[in-house]
Automatic annotation (TrEMBL):
Gene Ontology MF, one: FMN binding
Name the UniProt record assigns to this protein: Protein-methionine-sulfoxide reductase heme-binding subunit MsrQ
Alphabetized UniProt keyword annotations: Cell membrane, Electron transport, Flavoprotein, FMN, Heme, Iron, Membrane, Metal-binding, Transmembrane, Transmembrane helix, Transport
Membrane topology qualifier: Multi-pass membrane protein
Subunit composition and interactions: Heterodimer of a catalytic subunit (MsrP) and a heme-binding subunit (MsrQ).
Matches recorded under InterPro entries: Fe3_Rdtase_TM_dom (IPR013130), MsrQ-like (IPR022837)
Protein's organism: Pseudomonas graminis
Subcellular locations according to the entry: Cell membrane; Membrane
Transmembrane segments: 5-23, 43-63, 75-97, 109-127, 147-164, 170-189
């Protein structure tokens, strides 16, 4: 397997973050409502991981290093893991697994529906991230995985609805997401790739 140390490093980093949060909850370092803090952090972690995953292709085009693409699938699966923990934490800490309360929450907080749609999108991407699905779906696989940008929009809307009082942090993530969308425009992506190829072909002066 290529880039084994790089892959392991990404795996360990992604795994340690929620474990550290759980440790903080264990030592009562997350304030009076650690459950809500965990849910919020897992939701934000999902958004950050999604942005990092979407940045892998532009980074590969810019630098030419294939290691970025080598961890893209792993990052996407970690993104799904985080959102699954986010949903599980919401059900446990916020609802207490009282599903009758969910109907009340949906009326009071419709951003939950937006988050659920994002979760379903990530679920579809995680299920079809394997090589078998790539072969089975063919060209449709790429079209399906373009849903990641729609999912990003749903995630940003979900966050915006929650943090309406303080938009500074949200604006940072939204700006990064917009930049990643711009870099995916075919004309811009081709220009970046041509510039990289041109710069790599220029002989180095001794």
């Amino acid at each position: 397997m290529r880039f084994i140390y790089w892959r392991v490093s990404v795996f360990v980093a992604a795994a340690l973050v929620p474990l550290y949060w759980l440790y903080q909850a264990w030592i009562f370092a997350l304030g009076p409502d650690p459950g809500k803090v965990l849910v919020d952090r897992l939701g934000l972690g999902t958004l950050i991981l999604l942005l990092i995953t979407l940045a892998m292709t532009p980074l590969q085009r810019t630098t030419g290093w294939p290691g970025w693409i080598a961890v893209r699938r792993q990052l996407g699966l970690w993104c799904f893991t985080y959102v699954s923990l986010h949903m599980l934490g919401y059900g446990f800490f916020i609802l207490g697994f009282d599903w009758a309360q969910l109907g009340v929450e949906l009326v009071k907080r419709p951003y939950i529906i937006v988050g659920a749609l994002g979760f379903l999108g990530l679920l579809s991407l995680a299920v079809t991230s394997n090589r078998y699905s790539q072969r089975r779906l063919g060209m449709r696989w790429k079209k399906l995985h373009r849903l990641s940008y729609l999912i990003l929009g749903l995630g940003l809307l979900h966050m915006l609805w929650i943090v309406r009082a303080d938009l500074k942090e949200w604006a940072v993530y939204a700006t990064i997401g917009a930049l990643l969308l711009v870099l995916r425009i075919p004309a811009i992506a081709k220009r970046i790739q041509r510039r990289r190829v041109k710069s790599s072909s220029v002989p180095t002066k001794v």
